[in-house]
Amino acid sequence: MLFKAHTLDAIARGDVDLAFRRWTRPTVKTGSRLRTKIGSLLIGEVTLIEPEKCTAEEARRAGFEDVAALERDLGKGDGSLYRIVIAGVEADERTSLRDEMLSQTVIAGLADQLGRWDKAAGHAGYHRKILQLIADHPGMAAADLAAQLDVEKLKFKRDVRKLKEVGLTISLDIGYRLSPRGRSFLDGR
């Protein structure tokens, strides 16, 4: 489930607390979290609704002037209409990890984790190579970084997301950079 930047800004201000999507099946569940640039959105109730039951108040709570504007945005499309309550926004837990300086115990734990990922990928040292490549070329496009490792771009991006999950990388508009935690891990301190 994606949100446009202006909608995320409105959610952060508290102006928007509903969303509507047409889906063949929902991509979020009640009680789940959705990571975004503004933090983790807390997903409240996800309800299947009939389009004609959408009210003007709900359209405004979703950031639209009226129901007609919401309908234009949704289009006819395939799938059923769902109303998604945005129950709040919390800080992305990865953000606090990024600035954490590492003890030798944490470094060893991360090295073990990367070792397991490397084994699953069938390439010893592969994830450390990704980190070094990002350190050497911050802001370089994912396709160019992937080409330097001779891997498919989508696989590379998936692997960088794993590193981001443990707070080692930060996504930029184009490419990535190491977080302070990632730099500390790569330097072994």
Sum this structure up briefly.
This is ASCH domain-containing protein. By secondary structure, this protein is of the alpha+beta class.
Which features does this protein show?
Arc Repressor Mutant, subunit A, 6 strands, Archaeosine Trna-guanine Transglycosylase, Chain: A, domain 4, 189 residues
Secondary structure layout:
Layout: H1 5-13, E1 18-23, E2 33-36, E3 39-49, H2 56-61, H3 67-74, E4 80-90, H4 93-98, H5 104-121, H6 126-136, H7 142-149, H8 153-165, E5 169-171, E6 176-178, H9 180-187
Antiparallel strand pairs: 1-4, 2-3, 3-4, 5-6
Protein name: ASCH domain-containing protein
CATH topology type of the largest domain: Arc Repressor Mutant, subunit A
The fraction of residues assigned to DSSP E strands is: 15-25%
- Provide the number of structural domains: 2
- Which structural class matches the secondary elements? alpha+beta
Strand order of the largest sheet: 1-4-3-2
Distance separating the two termini:
38 Å
Q: What is the CATH homology-level superfamily of the largest domain?
A: Winged helix-like DNA-binding domain superfamily/Winged helix DNA-binding domain
State the shape.
elongated
Give start-end ranges of low-pLDDT stretches.
none
Largest sheet: 4 strands, antiparallel
Number of helices: 9
Number of strands: 6
Could you explain how this protein is built, in words?
It comes from Phyllobacterium myrsinacearum. This is ASCH domain-containing protein. InterPro entries: WH-like_DNA-bd_sf (IPR036388), WH_DNA-bd_sf (IPR036390). By secondary structure, this protein is of the alpha+beta class. It folds into 2 domains: 5-91, Roll (Archaeosine Trna-guanine Transglycosylase, Chain: A, domain 4); 95-187, Winged helix-like DNA-binding domain superfamily/Winged helix DNA-binding domain (Arc Repressor Mutant, subunit A, Orthogonal Bundle). Helices cover 46% and strands 20% of the residues. A hairpin with a 4-residue loop joins strand 5 (169-171) and strand 6. Helix 7 crosses helix 8 (153-165). It is elongated and about 60 Å long. It starts with a helix and ends with a helix. The relative contact order is 0.13.
